[in-house]
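User: Let's play a game. I give you a shape written as tokens, and you guess the letters that built it. Ready? Here's round one.
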């Protein structure tokens, strides 16, 4: 299906996407990921898909006490079926994500800090590190206050595609924007605030963002994403989604839902209002029409499921 066939007004709600997913009667293979911390007992969630660094394969995850919002990023290496944390310098961020730009490892995450305008509350922003591996990362950029889900993708011509997620007057509860930069030094709050919004992805009562960007055929981008809403009791509902984006034209297809909470193993949640939360961490495309989806579940643990590759349909257009 060509994304040029999609026009304005094709946005669908969480409920509509969920109904569409339920009709497919998908069978999935899910499993909990066994993480081993060095000297403490904390939750590991909102994990990345496996990535390579310094000749080894790693998963990065949010390491956090059940009753806290202050986190650090842990890097975990697989050993005998478990993912064991490496001894690295602490990076105190939430929700890690990893990519490569010009051969460099780029690590991002969400930094929380006291909100000067609202005493007693927390503010947040996305922060970026760069380096040649997990033991050599230097902070170099940060996004605007109150903006999560900033993601980067290096294009074939060397330009860097940036996805943003403004909130408030411009983005409502959270909408997706996009822009290009030529070099990482242009990754500034001012530049990110100028991103073009995707107007037809969320109704005003719902929100979402991009989680990982994949280069696919035809110079298009496969976007791993999420959509979320509150119910009448104030509980959060997060779902894993995906869509296709054409950076040459700015066209994009509507989201399709690819996973919900019941696809994963039963387990704990950080709070009762987070029981139905699936946070898309990363997608590992396997090349055989299948993909492994790595997610945070219930804001308390990391799991993965095997699914049909959501970007296969765009590869042969």
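Assistant: Ready! My guess for every position:
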């Amino acid at each position: 299906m060509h994304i040029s066939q999609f026009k304005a007004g094709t946005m669908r709600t969480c409920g509509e996407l969920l109904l569409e997913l339920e009709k497919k009667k998908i069978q999935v293979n899910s499993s909990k990921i066994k993480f081993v911390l060095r000297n403490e007992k904390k939750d590991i969630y909102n994990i990345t898909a496996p990535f390579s660094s310094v000749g080894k394969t790693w998963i990065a995850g949010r390491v956090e006490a059940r009753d806290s919002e202050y986190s650090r990023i842990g890097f975990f290496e697989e050993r005998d079926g478990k993912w064991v944390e490496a001894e690295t310098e602490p990076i105190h961020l939430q929700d890690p994500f990893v990519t490569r730009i010009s051969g460099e490892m780029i690590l991002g995450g969400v930094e929380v800090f006291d909100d000067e305008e609202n005493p007693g509350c927390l503010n947040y922003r996305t922060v970026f590190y760069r380096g040649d591996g997990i033991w050599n990362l230097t902070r170099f950029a940060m996004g605007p206050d109150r903006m999560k889900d900033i993601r980067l993708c290096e294009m074939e011509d060397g330009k860097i595609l940036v996805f943003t997620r403004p909130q408030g007057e411009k983005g409502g509860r959270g909408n997706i924007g996009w822009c290009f930069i030529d070099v990482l030094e242009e990754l500034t709050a001012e530049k990110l605030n100028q991103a073009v919004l995707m107007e037809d992805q969320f109704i005003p009562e719902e929100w979402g963002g991009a989680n990982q960007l994949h280069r696919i055929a035809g110079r298009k981008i496969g976007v791993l994403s999420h959509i979320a809403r509150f119910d009448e009791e104030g509980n959060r509902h997060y779902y894993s989604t995906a869509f296709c984006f054409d950076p040459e034209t700015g066209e994009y297809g509507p989201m399709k839902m690819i996973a919900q909470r019941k696809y994963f193993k039963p387990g704990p949640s950080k709070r009762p209002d987070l029981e139905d939360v699936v946070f898309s961490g990363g997608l590992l495309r396997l090349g055989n029409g299948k993909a492994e989806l790595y997610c945070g579940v219930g804001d308390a643990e990391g799991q993965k499921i095997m699914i049909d590759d959501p970007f296969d349909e765009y590869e042969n257009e």
